[in-house]
fumarylacetoacetase
Amino acid sequence: MTTWLDLPEDTLFGIDNLPYGVFSTADDPQRRRLGVAIGPWVLDAGAAARAVGSPDPLLEAASLDPLLAAGRAAWTRVRDALTRWLSEPAFRAVVEPCLVPRADVALHLPFTVGDYVDFYASEHHATNLGRLFRPDSEPLTPNWKHLPIGYHGRSGTVVVSGTPIVRPNGQRKAPTEAVPSFGPSRRLDIEAEVGFVVGAGSELGTAVPMADFAEHVFGVCLVNDWSARDIQGWEYVPLGPFLGKSFATSVSPWVVPLDALAPAARVAPPARDVEPLPYLDDRDAKEPWGLDLALEVRLNGTVISRPPFAGMYWTPAQMLAHMTVNGASVRPGDLYASGTVSGPDRGTEGALIELTWNGERPTELGDGTSRGFLEDGDEVTITATAPGPNGRRLGFGEVTGRVLPARS
Ligand SMILES: O=C(O)/C=C/C(=O)CC(=O)CC(=O)O
Ligand SMILES: [Ca+2]
Ligand SMILES: [Mg+2]
């Protein structure tokens, strides 16, 4: 696919990507509009549809919500149309005026987040956290390779990239302390994750099989599941993460459509060394949903980690199948995240607690300082790319956030 736009060959927002977002401009900050990123521009999608003479209510909305709910056939129709408008020279004269420089827009949370679930799908992350949190037990719990473990998070505190993160207060108790104390978290951490945005819902009482993944999931974003390790370590027994993670979860403003990732970014997941139950068995699947995303984590501008998503043990299709196997329904706008993406090697950990091994081996930053956990004022940015058609790469934009001091 080529475009009439003059884009650098190595742009991460080329014609094959076209991620969706919601933007506003300074001259009309209240007016939110749906756009797709292309090179250094945002195409105002509603305005483009009007300009070519086929106005589309799905593109006039102030969020992705109606498009998400419209389902796979509408997603394909809209993406095909946007691709045509940006590639066929005949459309150039009317569509070009609908491009807004990306540098001039504010980006917003692109959809209303419904239920939010966070999985735990990296074997390396789960093994590391098991060693750190439960040193006297086997690192992987006995259920880990039989089902994708997850927990329900707090969807109301999912925020768009750029939103400042206030250091949480809470109960903290180190294993060596006799009683808990109250105050700002001293072990504030990140979790580099990939998020899956549900479009078409499912019916209560009905499971979504792995094969129907692409009928329900619209696209992919980046997630930072900020985590207060001291609060978490004290509170989580036996029901799992609660206040240690619910204070904020950041998402990238661009949602990359699943269609942009197929087929180039799809890869086989790791070998299943435990036979999965039939509803999770993807060993014979012709097209399993492993995804070859390369993540990068920067702390105050220094790259501290490069987590590889391709090695995740559980795929997003398995996560959706598991999340609904009891008949729980999904709704448009539901978001589920992969869990921390950590690889097997040093420098591929998706969280500071692993990278610095509980703060014992601080990571060096370019300004000569080092970090065990986050300090006030620190800024964390997660980016990712994936293989696209013709050897080009697709970008996911970024999810970024700066830590503000705790409030008293
Ligand atoms: O092993 C634990 O007790 C805790 C694990 C986490 O903090 C991870 C969690 O949020 C899921 C993930 O991101 O993989
Ligand atoms: Ca997490
Ligand atoms: Mg969180």
User: Anything to note?
Assistant: The domain at 116-404 is CATH 3.90.850.10 (Fumarylacetoacetate hydrolase; domain 2). The radius of gyration is 21 Å. Residues 201 and 330 are 5 Å apart (CA to CA).
